[in-house]
């Protein structure tokens, strides 16, 4: 199938390129006409925080939207007539905005609690008609920017809340840095500007179509605002990586004397087959996220799957068409000081390295394992949670608002808990205030605002502020204390139904709910990887060892991530200067992506080892030759991946930094310490036992040829005819 596809795309290259150009234009037109908005529902299904949100939405719709905090600070005091007049004019202007339900002013009756004890700081709560999920950065800026413009030398005005954070979201531009760095690596890998350009063009076409279609996807699936940046990171990385493998094989076939058409068919039939296998594995791994039952994570998974799917399609169709245009001209625009000779591998360098590892395999095996375990150790102390305004850039308005509130009122005022109190109409207001007074005596509670009752009198809202910051572990303990002890005690025999909600409670529920389902996710991905590798390599120990080493490499990457987010020199280096909690969804995403990507390197290396073992029956020689034939391409491919991923760590978003750093470190460890040290060492130690597979199991397992078959040049094909039946040899090594 792949041979026929490559041959057709080569012969009809103009049609293929025009079709991809049309698809790019059409996808952007669809995005403009049918594009949806970001929606990020992190509420854990069945949780108390979701119940609180549903109660507000149903019985108290005017309180179900998000809240923006307008924070004022004046050294001469916010109660002076000059400051007060300006503030009230500002609040009146804000209240007229279409998205605003009402403004709770600190200067209104009962608003004295919204003014700090020293009189220099005050805040107003601006209730919105909807949640941040319905906002775009542009719509949020229309609300927030006029508020910020009211500041001057005598009055500092800042805005806090999720909508304010969205308003200062900048377009991700770090992918440009990654593309430039990847271009430099490809230039020195291929030695030709033409060869370098093919993977970049393929990746950009795939990324453009995928990102545009991703906007249409948002119309039918809840997609968080950070998903496109992560999908772009993965799409660029795998797009360049897959095209690199195909172009490398194409140049090798040309150097062996094949004509461009047959070289294209050979490249797609071998490296293209590996690309199809690797891309499918990434997709299946990402779909494993659906086992988590998180709506926002589902949208993230679908966005990444779309990017990988389009990228694989571009690699298998657009790239063969472009190879048809370049032909032998792929070596044009040569880079000085880089050899023009196409060498699939450097026999002297990598063969010596393999023999060095195999000479005393216990030493590198134990040493490599010790390094992985040492890097993994910090992961044991990682703190899961959600970054908030305290982790924003010091110059951002959300960070300024957080600091002013923490200094004037206490660290808990930036994210209070929202309690819904439901009961019989009539005396609910009195009962809710009595409950608030009782909760105000609980250790860890700084303030409980007076109850607000809806028009029908059956639902009241209590706002509870903690004495500790949203990220503090004591705040999480306070949520448990309220739910398990304080509220049940205070509401005994009252008939009241109370749910603790708000951002802090939602984060606690989401983290715990996700953690409860982790065994299903990790178990599913690990089992799938094991079965696929067992079918490919007809072995029990090889896939078992591969899964364990991938798990250790992932743990090591998480350990480095824990170091970076714990504060210190590494955090300063990547722009995370303060201790920052890691959303539990982030390691899940990294794990799924990495296991899909590592399968590519696993197949590329082990298939060559298996090929040599089947040919010679000598395990030691097979390991050395397999590493020699695959090391150069794995190194170049990993260098591109690591560069692209690390470039995203330069972005402004803390989440994007975490994803870029985690994926970059994971690929770096996987392609170096695992593939170049642990794999040859452990395979040398196991010897012929590497390829043991019970006969009964061999009969049951289907055969998967992930590397395809090499199209030889002993049959001819013409531009007007498809490829005739050809003789084949197994494998896609340097020599067929």
UniProtKB/TrEMBL annotation:
Positions in coiled-coil regions: none
Major place of residence: membrane
Topology in membrane: Multi-pass membrane protein
InterPro entries: MMPL_dom, Mycobact_MmpL, SSD
Domain SSD residue range list: 176-325
Record field: transmembrane: 172-190, 226-247, 268-293, 299-323, 362-386, 518-537, 544-564, 584-606, 633-651, 657-678
GO cellular component terms given for this protein: plasma membrane
Localization annotation: Cell membrane
Region (Disordered): 709-736
Keyword set, alphabetical order: Cell membrane, Membrane, Transmembrane, Transmembrane helix
Presence of keyword Transmembrane helix: yes
PROSITE patterns on file: SSD
Family to which the UniProt record says this protein belongs: Belongs to the resistance-nodulation-cell division (RND) (TC 2.A.6) family. MmpL subfamily.
Protein name in the entry: MMPL family transporter
Organism this protein belongs to: Nocardioides eburneiflavus
């Amino acid at each position: 199938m792949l041979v026929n596809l490559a041959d057709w795309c080569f012969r009809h290259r103009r049609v293929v390129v025009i079709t991809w150009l049309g698809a790019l234009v059409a996808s952007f037109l669809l995005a403009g006409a049918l594009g949806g908005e970001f929606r990020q529902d992190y509420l854990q299904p069945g949780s108390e925080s979701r119940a609180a949100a549903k109660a507000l939405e149903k019985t108290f719709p005017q309180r179900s939207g998000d809240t923006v905090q307008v924070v004022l600070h004046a050294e001469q005091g916010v109660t002076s007539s000059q400051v007060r007049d300006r503030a009230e004019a500002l609040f009146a202007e804000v209240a007229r905005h279409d998205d605003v339900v009402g403004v709770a002013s600190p200067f209104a009756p009962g608003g004295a609690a919204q003014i700090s004890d020293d009189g220099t700081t005050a805040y107003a709560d601006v209730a919105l008609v909807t949640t941040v999920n319905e906002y775009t950065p542009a719509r949020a800026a229309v609300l927030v920017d006029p508020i910020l413009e009211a500041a001057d030398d005598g009055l500092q005005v800042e805005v806090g809340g999720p909508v304010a954070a969205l308003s200062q979201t900048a377009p991700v531009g770090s992918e440009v840095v990654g593309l430039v760095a990847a271009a430099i690596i490809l230039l020195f890998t291929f030695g030709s500007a033409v060869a370098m350009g093919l993977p970049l063009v393929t990746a950009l076409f795939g990324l453009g179509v995928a990102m545009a279609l991703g906007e249409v996807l948002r119309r039918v699936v809840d997609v968080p605002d950070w998903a496109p940046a992560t999908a772009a990171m993965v799409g660029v990385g795998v797009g360049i990586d897959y095209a690199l493998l195909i172009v490398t094989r194409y140049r090798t076939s040309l150097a062996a004397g094949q004509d461009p058409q047959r070289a294209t068919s050979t490249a797609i039939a071998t490296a293209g087959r590996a690309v199809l296998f690797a891309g499918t594995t990434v997709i299946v791994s990402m779909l494993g996220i659906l086992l988590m039952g998180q709506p926002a994570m589902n949208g993230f998974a679908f966005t990444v799957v779309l990017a990988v799917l389009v990228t694989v399609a571009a690699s298998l169709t657009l790239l063969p068409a472009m190879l048809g245009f370049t032909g032998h001209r792929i070596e044009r625009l040569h880079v000085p000081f880089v050899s023009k000779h196409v060498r699939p591998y450097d026999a002297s360098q990598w063969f010596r390295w393999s023999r060095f590892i195999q000479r005393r395999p216990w030493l590198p095996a134990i040493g490599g394992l010790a390094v992985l375990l040492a890097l993994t150790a910090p992961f044991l102390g990682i703190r899961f949670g959600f970054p908030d305004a305290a982790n924003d850039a010091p110059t951002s308005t959300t960070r300024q608002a957080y600091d002013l509130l923490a200094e004037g009122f206490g660290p808990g005022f930036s994210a209070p808990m929202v309690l819904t109190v439901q009961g019989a109409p009539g005396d609910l207001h009195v009962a809710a205030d009595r409950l608030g007074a009782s909760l105000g005596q609980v250790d860890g509670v700084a303030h409980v605002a007076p109850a607000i009752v809806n028009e029908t009198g059956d639902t009241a809202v209590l706002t509870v502020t903690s004495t500790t910051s949203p990220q503090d572990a004591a705040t999480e303990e306070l949520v448990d204390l309220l739910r398990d002890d304080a509220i049940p005690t205070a509401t005994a025999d009252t008939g009241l139904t109370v749910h603790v909600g708000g951002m802090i409670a939602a984060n606690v529920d989401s983290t715990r709910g996700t953690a409860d389902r982790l065994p299903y996710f990790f178990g599913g991905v690990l089992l799938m990887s094991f079965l696929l590798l067992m079918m490919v390599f007809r072995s029990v120990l090889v896939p078992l060892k591969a899964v364990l080493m991938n798990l250790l490499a992932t743990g090591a990457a998480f350990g480095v991530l824990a170091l970076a987010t714990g504060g210190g020199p590494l955090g300063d280096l990547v722009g995370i200067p303060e201790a920052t909690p890691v959303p539990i969804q982030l390691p899940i995403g990294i794990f799924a992506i990495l296991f899909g990507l590592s399968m590519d390197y696993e197949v590329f290396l082990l298939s060559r080892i298996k090929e040599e073992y089947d040919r010679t029956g000598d395990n030691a020689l097979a390991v050395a030759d397999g590493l020699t034939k695959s090391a150069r391409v794995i190194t170049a491919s990993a260098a591109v991946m690591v560069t692209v991923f690390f470039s995203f760590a330069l972005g402004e978003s803390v989440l994007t930094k975490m994803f870029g750093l985690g994926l970059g470190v994971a690929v770096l460890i996987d392609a170096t310490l695992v593939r170049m040290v642990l794999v040859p060492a452990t395979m040398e130690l196991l010897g012929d036992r590497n390829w043991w597979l019970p006969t009964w199991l061999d009969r049951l397992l289907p055969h998967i040829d992930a590397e395809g078959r090499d199209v030889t040049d002993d049959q001819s094909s013409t531009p007007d005819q498809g490829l005739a039946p050809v003789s084949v040899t197994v494998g896609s090594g340097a020599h067929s």
